[in-house]
Amino acid sequence: MDTFTRFLMTFSNLIASPFNNGFPEFVLKFVPYMIFLEAPVYVLVFLGIVRYVMRNSEDVPNARPYHPRVSCMVTAYGEGKDVQVTIRSLTEQIYPGFIEIICVVDGALHNINTYEAAKQMEAFVNGLPRRALKVVPKWQRGGRVSSLNTALELSLGEIVMALDGDTSFDNNMISDATMHFLDPNVVGVAGCLRVRNITQSLWTRLQAIEYLLSIYTSKTGLSEFNIVNNISGAFGIFRKSFIQTIGGWDSGTAEDLDITLRMKNYFGRYPNLKIMFEPKAMGHTDVPVSFKGFLMQRLRWDGDLFYLYVRKHRFSLQPGILGWRNLIMTVWTGLFFQLVLPFIILLYSAWTLVLLPLGYTLAVWAVVYLFYMLVTLAFYVVFLLFLSERPKQDLKLAPFLPLVPFFTYITRIWGGVSTLWEFLFKSHMDSSMAPWYVLRKTKF
């Protein structure tokens, strides 16, 4: 029997397997790919989106005036003139309250172009009513955490925003983000992110789809159950008093997930606390253009997950600290999906390729691809119909959807490489987010 014939026979048998041999046997064939462990998360996200859509269709706009003073803490390092786009997008917000922009230029001695570009915006911003810009040079580089804590000390706002110097924002962002803090139990809001440089390459388009599905769509659903996994470092909104209570940002890398976990450390004792996600609070950021740049970024991101979950926060993984809901989701979607699953997929893929007939292996992979393609398509359609505020722009990404399962597979395998790299070499101590003399002094 040739390979193609074996492939067709195996593929058809696998598709018919739930009907002919029973569903349990079908499940066992695909447990190594974790399809059936991921499916409940997809269902949970879909239920959350349904709840979000129904709630927003029934909500009456709140007439209560709530326009707190907002401090936008912009961390800049090497953006040059691009930092002006960020400052201008914050200045031109449709928001009647006071907006204070604190732009901290890290390593200003070597980033004098960024510092001068930010200083050039002072006259424009300070000349407008209820707007203020402070440009703070940190002449010696100390890293992003150092910049955030410096801005936190200087801030006067009730609400503080941690923002990247190369991220711009829709002009309704602050209004939509701050409305959640009417609820005194809300201590943080995760902002939404889109890819700004979508058209630069195939990889930017695939990352754009990833952002739309994993951030925009998934976090909208998870937020309905108060289990948002992370407040993005490029765009996070916080109640200042709570951030001061937990001591600000901690030194080290992956400060976004770190502060999210540190905030959730109070959820077990104070179960009414909330971290929300606001899909209408939109930021736009650039992503790596080349495949190599993408891999290098994820090497840091995924390696930092092992550093945080295993090295730093392993003692937080108990219900008395995180609460049951966030404990289950952290272990399930964080520890297991991010750190364990890549190795299982890699080993099982290698096993099937080496020990099983090629036709059978290709048929199994085809079924797995079909499943993930259907999931991707379902998420994409739901996103377009119920969430997207730019449907014409997002529809242009549809031709690239068939590549998403392959892109996800590569990302997961590389996640395993990144985890192994962190385990062996503590790569978080060589992060570009802070100089070595800062990272080497951290406890972990």
Chain-wise SSE layout:
Layout (H helix, E strand, L loop, with lengths): L2 H18 L2 H8 L4 H24 L11 E7 L5 H10 L7 E8 L5 H8 L2 H5 L4 E8 L5 H11 L4 E6 L3 E2 L3 H6 L7 E10 L6 H22 L11 E5 H6 L9 H10 L9 E12 L5 H22 L6 H4 L1 H32 L2 H29 L4 H5 L8 H22 L10 H4 L5
Parallel strand pairs: 1-2, 1-4, 2-3, 6-8
Antiparallel strand pairs: 4-7, 5-8, 6-7
Helix pairs in contact: 1-2, 1-15, 3-9, 3-15, 9-15, 12-14, 12-17, 14-17
Any low-confidence stretches, pLDDT <50, length ≥5?
none
The CATH class label of the largest domain is Alpha Beta
Shape: globular
Helical content (DSSP H or I, runs of 4+): 55-70%
Strand content: 5-15%
- Give the termini separation: 56 Å
* Biggest sheet, spatial arrangement of strands: 3-2-1-4-7-6-8-5
What number of structural domains do the residues give? 2
The CATH topology of the largest domain: Spore Coat Polysaccharide Biosynthesis Protein SpsA, Chain A
Largest sheet: 8 strands, mixed
Number of helices: 18
Rg measurement, Å: 23 Å
Structural class: alpha/beta
CATH architecture level-2 label of the largest domain:
Alpha-Beta Complex
Helix-strand topology string: HHHEHEHHEHEEHEHEHHEHHHHHHH
Q: Could you give the count of β-strands? A: 8
Average pLDDT taken over every residue: 90
CATH superfamily of the largest domain: Spore Coat Polysaccharide Biosynthesis Protein SpsA, Chain A
